[in-house]
């Protein structure tokens, strides 16, 4: 008995495996290659196979898979042949959340940081919430934790519509900006999935939506019409159909911090974050709205937000050498890249911003090449490297140069090691180099720092 995870080293899979292990379940799994994550899971006592083979799969286990696992995978194939129970990662996460107030955070961008903010705030105010987040959270550790508190915070993945397997008590939707068109086909289908997600709320559940985003505003209006309880947040006005609106005003950004005043029907509250970026004030407003809905006083939530110090791969400082700062960020959608570079511009001051961008997925590169080029133009220098394929096969004619060719001064360096060396060589004291993307570009930070230190 127990659960066998195919691809257990993935960010989402490892979190669920750890949560079910904490329940006392027998957990095992495999991954194509060893990593710090597989080492960590093995250290917890999980039997982790490196390499995937049909012989690894226990005959009596429920097999947990994800959209990244192809039908041709030998472990999935043997499980299907035997008639074993097979579930998607999201279904396993739903099992892990049983008996808790389930808070699901969704959106094309911002969901990891918002989930992490809320988990961090609740940990400080409540003591011990549970969470499932696709990234390491500074100050509270791993992306998965089973606590003794009543609330379970989870990042809800919209990429393959698997977030429709949840029935939350509360949902935060940061934005509904079209992405994952390889799965949905059209922007309309993408938005319709979020409408269905809102209807997955338990009776009396609450939708918290950012009305600064047009897609989320349309979702909020649709939900209110359907009788779903609604709270909105943003810099602009909310909807008259919302129970309340959390508005950001008196905003300022300096010294690596973001500040603002959050106001709603209960009063006004000063908020200061120890992370940069206008987008992070929006994430904080969504967090503040959700936490106050869960019963915590606004002043206490504001205080707890001030202690949040970020998540791994979200504007994460990797180090400094010869006066040059290297920062890593997971941004892989044009809007995310734009927000990251705006934050970098604020952080760099008089220094230059040098972006090393690795496109993620051929389909996304094809669909958003012009938008990526426009976003990357915010950097003083932009170096684009080869596409990180992830789960996809190549698309003829689609490569990183599709983006750089649309930019004035854009550079395409196909080999990522050569791209890292080039970024290091062109940087000067006071500059900020960013490695940007959802793939293995994250490994280049130390490489860049080493080259700068010895040039």
Write the layout of secondary structure elements.
Elements: E1 3-6, H1 11-22, E2 27-31, H2 36-43, E3 47-50, E4 62-65, H3 74-82, E5 86-88, H4 89-96, E6 101-106, H5 111-125, E7 130-132, E8 144-145, E9 151-155, E10 170-173, H6 181-184, H7 187-198, E11 206-210, H8 214-225, E12 229-234, E13 244-254, E14 257-264, E15 267-273, H9 278-293, H10 298-305, E16 316-321, E17 324-329, H11 334-348, E18 353-357, H12 362-376, E19 381-384, H13 401-404, E20 411-412, H14 416-426, E21 432-436, H15 444-453
Parallel strand pairs: 1-2, 1-4, 2-3, 4-5, 6-9, 6-10, 7-9, 10-11, 11-12, 12-13, 17-21, 18-19, 18-21, 19-20
Antiparallel strand pairs: 7-8, 13-14, 14-15, 16-17
Protein name: UDP-N-acetylmuramate--L-alanine ligase
Main location: cytoplasm
Domain Mur ligase N-terminal catalytic: 3-98
């Amino acid at each position: 008995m127990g659960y066998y995870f195919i691809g257990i080293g993935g960010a989402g899979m490892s979190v669920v495996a750890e949560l079910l292990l904490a329940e006392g379940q027998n957990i095992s799994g495999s991954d194509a290659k060893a990593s710090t994550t597989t080492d960590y899971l093995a250290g917890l006592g999980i039997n982790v196979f490196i390499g995937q083979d049909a012989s690894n799969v226990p005959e009596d286990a429920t097999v947990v898979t994800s959209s990244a696992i192809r039908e041709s995978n030998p472990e999935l194939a043997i499980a299907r042949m035997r008639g074993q129970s097979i579930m998607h990662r999201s279904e396993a996460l739903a099992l892990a959340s049983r008996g808790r107030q389930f808070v699901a955070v969704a959106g094309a961008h911002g969901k990891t940081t918002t989930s992490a903010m809320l988990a961090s705030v609740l940990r400080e105010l409540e003591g011990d919430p549970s969470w499932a987040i696709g990234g390491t959270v500074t100050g509270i550790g791993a992306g998965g934790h089973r606590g003794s508190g009543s609330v379970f915070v989870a990042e809800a993945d919209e990429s393959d519509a698997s977030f429709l397997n949840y029935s939350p008590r509360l949902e935060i939707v940061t934005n509904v900006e079209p992405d994952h068109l390889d799965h949905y086909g059209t922007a309309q289908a993408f938005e319709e999935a979020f409408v269905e997600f809102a209807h997955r709320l338990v009776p009396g559940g609450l939708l918290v939506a950012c009305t600064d985003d047009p897609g989320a505003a349309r979702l909020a209006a649709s939900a209110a019409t359907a009788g779903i309880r609604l709270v909105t947040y943003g810099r602009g006005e909310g909807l008259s159909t919302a129970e309340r609106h959390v508005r950001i005003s008196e905003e300022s950004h300096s010294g690596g911090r973001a500040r603002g005043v959050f106001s709603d029907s209960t009063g006004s509250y000063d908020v200061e974050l120890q992370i940069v970026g206008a987008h992070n004030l929006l994430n904080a407003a969504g967090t503040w709205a959700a936490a106050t809905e869960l019963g915590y006083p606004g002043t206490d939530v504001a205080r707890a937000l001030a202690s949040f110090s970020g998540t791994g791969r979200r504007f994460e400082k990797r180090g400094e050498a010869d006066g040059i700062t290297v920062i890593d960020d997971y941004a892989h959608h044009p809007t995310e890249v734009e927000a990251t570079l705006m934050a970098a511009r604020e952080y760099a001051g008089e220094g230059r911003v040098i972006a090393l961008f690795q496109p993620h997925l051929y389909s996304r590169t094809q669909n958003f090449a012009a938008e990526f080029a426009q976003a990357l133009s915010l950097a003083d220098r932009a170096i684009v490297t080869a596409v990180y394929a992830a789960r996809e096969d190549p698309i003829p004619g689609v490569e990183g140069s599709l983006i750089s060719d649309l930019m004035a001064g854009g550079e395409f360096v196909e080999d990522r090691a050569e791209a890292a060396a080039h970024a290091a060589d062109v940087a000067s004291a006071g500059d900020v180099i960013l490695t940007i993307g959802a793939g293995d570009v994250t490994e280049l930070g130390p490489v860049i720092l080493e080259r700068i230190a010895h040039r």
